[in-house]
Amino acid sequence: MAKKYKFDLTVDASALLQANPSEYYSILYGMENAVSNYRVLPGIKNKTKIATVVFDSVLAEAGCDFNAKDGEVSAVEIDVCALTSQASVCQYDLEQSWLALEMAKGSNSDFSVASFMNFFWGQMAKKGHQELAQIMWKGDTTGEGTLALCDGWLKKLCAADDYQTPAGTYAAITSANVLAKMGATLAAATNEMLVNPANMQFKVSPDVAANYRIATASTNTITNVTTGLALTYLDIPVVVEYGLPASTIILSDYTNFIYALDAEGDQDNLQIVDFSKTTLDRRIGARADFKAGFYVVNTAQVVWYGGAQYCD
């Protein structure tokens, strides 16, 4: 006789109001594209070192004697910045909005409506990623405001001061010159970059991408209206980086840009509080803590159009 098992699961209604931590942090970190555009290092809680080794030469004529050349062993120190994403909403603002139709009758009723909270979490995560995208490139702890929260990749490139600069005079990118500037950037690539170009990417600011689309569409009259062309330049992917300053083009192996983050135990760092039950404020507050850091290795293998203007 077959045994029958019955599992009874009761889910508290308040659980519907909570965000999915994995989904929230995935949007916040931008993980959908991060793994293919940067070298992502999860689980970094504080300072750590990543080993690197460079070999001058490993091949030689065969013989009985062992005569190897020493490899150069070094390490890059990685650290992360402790950050937080916070937001709040006033109950009275909600009662006077479209949400009032879903709320219980009566003044000061419960305003934790599931449909709104799903929207709330999604918008909060997207806004957090927009600001993080600016920090990861233009962050500078000597400055002010949001960008002062952590040092970004451009500051690290400026400090190294050994990146490659394309030939020619710098000018703001337009649809008339974008193809020439992309070509000049590729022409400045080192031999080491060209030997193994599989991971090379053009990282461009939004205005460069827009002008590139216009310029390439003008030479593809069959598809320029109905079909979008893939963002590539001579088979090298062109990635739009919303944190880059205008008229910026960077060419590099994408693994040279290290994106360090904690991403462990994040489900415990995503919290929401109804302050009416604590401080009596008629607000709902949300907080998500996280850690992130940005480093560049092999800076001499990075071509940066606009670098001199930014670093000055």
Notes on the structure:
Helices cover 28% and strands 23% of the residues. It is an alpha+beta fold and 312 residues long. It has a single domain, classed as Alpha-Beta Complex (phage-related protein like fold). The strands form 3 sheets. Strands 1, 4, 9, 10 and 11 form a 5-stranded mixed β-sheet that branches. It has a 5-stranded mixed β-sheet with strand order 6-7-5-8-12. It has a two-stranded antiparallel sheet with strand order 2-3. Strand 10 (270-274) and strand 11 (283-296) form a beta hairpin. The longest helix has 25 residues, at 114-138. It is globular.
Question: What is shown here, in short?
Answer:
The protein has 312 residues and is an alpha+beta fold. The chain has nine helices and twelve strands. The protein has a single domain, classed as phage-related protein like fold (Alpha-Beta Complex), CATH 3.90.1690.
Largest beta sheet, briefly? 5 strands, mixed
- The tally of strands reads 12
Poorly predicted regions are: 1-16
SS-derived structural category: alpha+beta
State the shape: globular
CATH class type = Alpha Beta
Helix run count: 9
Q: Which CATH architecture would you pick? A: Alpha-Beta Complex
